[in-house]
Amino acid sequence: MELKKQILNLIAHQAKLSPKLIATMLGAEEEAIVRAIREMEEDKIILGYNTVINWDKIGSDGVTATIEVKVTPQREVGFNGVAERICRFSEVRSVHLVSGSYDLSVVVDGRDLKEIAAFVSHKLSTLDEVQSTVTHFVLKTYKVDNFVFEDAREDERLVISP
C-alpha cells in the first residue's frame, strides 16, 4: 500500500509521468508501478486523469459558480440520495458534503450567468429535498490543484532613495 500512496502523490501533481520515470523516482521496478497503477484504476482509486487549463488565456467566455445548497436529508440515505441526484446533472463539476450553515457545495459550469441561473431555478431548486440555495459566481481564478494561474508580477513601484 505504501508504494501505491507514493505513486498517487507523484501523479496527483503531474499525471503525465511515465511508469518508467516513476519507477526511477521511487527506486522500484517498472512492472510493479504499471501493475499498481492498473490495480488502482480497477479499484476506482484512480478515477481519471485531468488537465488543468487556464481558459482565460484563450478567451473562454464560460462561467463557473459555487452553489451553497441546504437540503433535507432523506430517511435511511441521509444526504447521499440528493447528492447523487445532483451529480447526474451535466452542468455539475463537483459536489461536496460540507459542515457549516449549508449542506452541499456544488460547483457548476455554464456558458453565461443566465445558463447557471436557469440551472438553479429549473433543475436544482425543483428537487424536493432542496430547501435553499446561494450562488457565488467565480470572478477570477488564482490557483487550482496547486497550479498558480498567473506569474508573479514584478514590483512596479518607483524606487525612492534619500
Nutshell version of this structure?
With 162 residues, this protein is an alpha+beta fold. It contains five helices and six strands.
Supply the key terms.
Alpha-Beta Plaits; 2 domains; two-stranded antiparallel sheet; Arc Repressor Mutant, subunit A; alpha+beta; single chain; 162 residues; 31% helix
Write structural notes for this entry.
The chain is of the alpha+beta class. The protein folds into two domains: 2-42, Arc Repressor Mutant, subunit A; 55-142, 2-Layer Sandwich (Alpha-Beta Plaits), CATH 3.30.70. It contains five helices and six strands; from the N terminus they run H-H-H-E-H-E-E-H-E-E-E. It has helices at residues 2-11, 19-26, 30-42, 80-87, 113-124; strands spanning 63-71, 92-97, 104-110, 130-137, 143-144, 147-148. The protein has a four-stranded antiparallel sheet with strand order 2-3-1-4. Strands 5-6 form a two-stranded antiparallel sheet. Helix 2 packs across helix 3. The mean pLDDT is 91.
